[in-house]
């Protein structure tokens, strides 16, 4: 990160937080977990490279395979976090995902919360999306897409998924960028079953960059995503237990009461500024996909004006694809061909 970029990032962080800048890990006082203590390989084991001190891990993608890891336990709600540095240079067609799911156990009724980082052609910025699925509701995906205010390949930034029985918050560093508040109308679409934390790097050339227009180029391989300062904070549980243990109920209550589960007015202003400047797609404004917004959507007339008629800044046509995540088929998704390079 050069001096100008560092100044811009620092200024943005300072402004969106109203002059208060603090590291998430320090503010939350949560312990990090060594890689081999908390995680196990998911696929591409030869492309998973832990650091000598076991505090970090690299995931590699080459022409033979991508790679991924998962937490050794599943959690009945929790705070899941890592500092991540993404691949640099030409990264079109590449997706790095940091997410929670239980798709290995509940194949047709899985829950999922996603950060998915979408690579780009050389000289163009990474973009990313967040998403939520509950009880296998893949036909009602809740994608949002954004730009970043920094280059995520230059240095580490902290990405966090908070999941309680009342709300879900996605954080980047100290900035809450999205909150989903549970309501009765959502029903089982709100994730409710124990999930584990996963991280992967994989080739998504068929859709990730301009609807598949730009594909992965293995002349630039290996593509390397680095993860450090991993946090797993929640109640470990057996996903097949019908009754949640009393200890988990108490820990869930503590999680709901924690500072990081409640967005302050200052943080809410920061989130609104981020979303007004860097969000370029939201399912709540996608009138082609949803003629009636989903029940949790609060439609802002000013945002609707920005997204215009369809909610898709550069919409072309529907395309239907089988969603293969980390070599497993979990369901179907519909995406518009968004020319967002």
TrEMBL record:
Entry superkingdom: Eukaryota
Q: Which CDD domains match?
A: GH16_XET
EC code:
2.4.1.207
Alphabetical UniProt keywords: Apoplast, Cell wall, Cell wall biogenesis/degradation, Disulfide bond, Glycosidase, Hydrolase, Membrane, Secreted, Transferase, Transmembrane, Transmembrane helix
User: Sorted alphabetically, which InterPro entries does this protein's record hold?
Assistant: Beta-glucanase-like, Beta-glucanase/XTH, ConA-like_dom_sf, XET_C, XTH
Q: Report if keyword Hydrolase is assigned.
A: yes
KW DNA-binding (keyword) present = no
Q: Which residues cross the membrane?
A: 6-30
Q: Output the Gene3D superfamilies linked to this UniProt entry.
A: 2.60.120.200
Q: Which residues form the GH16 domain?
A: 26-227
Write out the annotated subcellular location. Answer: Secreted, Cell wall; Secreted, Extracellular space, Apoplast
Modifications the protein undergoes after translation, according to the UniProt entry? Contains at least one intrachain disulfide bond essential for its enzymatic activity.
What PANTHER family does its record include?
Answer: XYLOGLUCAN ENDOTRANSGLUCOSYLASE/HYDROLASE PROTEIN 8-RELATED
Family statement: Belongs to the glycosyl hydrolase 16 family.
- Known role: Catalyzes xyloglucan endohydrolysis (XEH) and/or endotransglycosylation (XET). Cleaves and religates xyloglucan polymers, an essential constituent of the primary cell wall, and thereby participates in cell wall construction of growing tissues.
In its UniProt entry, what is this protein called? Answer: Xyloglucan endotransglucosylase/hydrolase
């Amino acid at each position: 990160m050069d001096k100008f970029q560092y100044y811009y990032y620092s200024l943005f962080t300072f402004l969106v937080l109203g002059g208060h800048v603090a590291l998430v890990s320090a503010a939350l006082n949560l312990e990090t977990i060594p890689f081999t203590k908390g995680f196990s390989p998911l696929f591409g084991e030869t492309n998973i490279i832990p650091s000598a001190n076991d505090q970090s891990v690299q995931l590699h993608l080459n022409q033979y395979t991508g790679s991924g890891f998962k937490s050794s336990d599943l959690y009945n709600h929790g705070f899941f976090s890592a500092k991540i540095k993404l691949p640099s240079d030409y990264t079109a067609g590449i997706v790095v995902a940091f997410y929670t799911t239980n798709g290995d156990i509940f194949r047709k009724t899985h829950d999922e919360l996603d950060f998915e980082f979408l690579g780009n052609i050389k000289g163009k910025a990474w973009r990313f999306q967040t998403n939520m699925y509950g009880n296998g509701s893949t036909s009602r995906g809740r994608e949002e897409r954004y730009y970043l205010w920094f280059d995520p390949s230059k240095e580490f930034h902290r990405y966090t998924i908070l999941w309680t029985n009342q709300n879900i918050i996605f954080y980047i560093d100290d900035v809450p960028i999205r909150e989903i508040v549970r309501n009765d109308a959502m029903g089982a679409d709100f994730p409710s079953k124990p999930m584990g934390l996963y991280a992967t790097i994989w080739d998504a050339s068929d859709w990730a960059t301009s609807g598949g227009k730009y594909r992965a180029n293995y002349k630039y391989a290996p593509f390397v995503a680095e993860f450090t300062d991993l946090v797993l904070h929640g109640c470990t549980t057996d996903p097949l237990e019908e009754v949640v243990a009393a200890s988990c109920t108490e820990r869930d209550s503590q999680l709901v009461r924690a500072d990081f589960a409640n967005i302050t007015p200052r943080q809410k202003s920061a989130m609104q500024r981020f979303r007004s400047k860097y969000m370029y797609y939201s399912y709540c404004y996608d009138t082609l996909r949803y003629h009636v917004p989903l029940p949790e959507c609060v439609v802002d007339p000013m945002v609707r004006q920005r997204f215009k008629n369809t909610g898709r800044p550069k919409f072309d046509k529907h395309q239907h694809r089988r969603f293969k995540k980390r070599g497993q088929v979990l369901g179907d998704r519909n995406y518009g061909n968004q020319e967002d390079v």
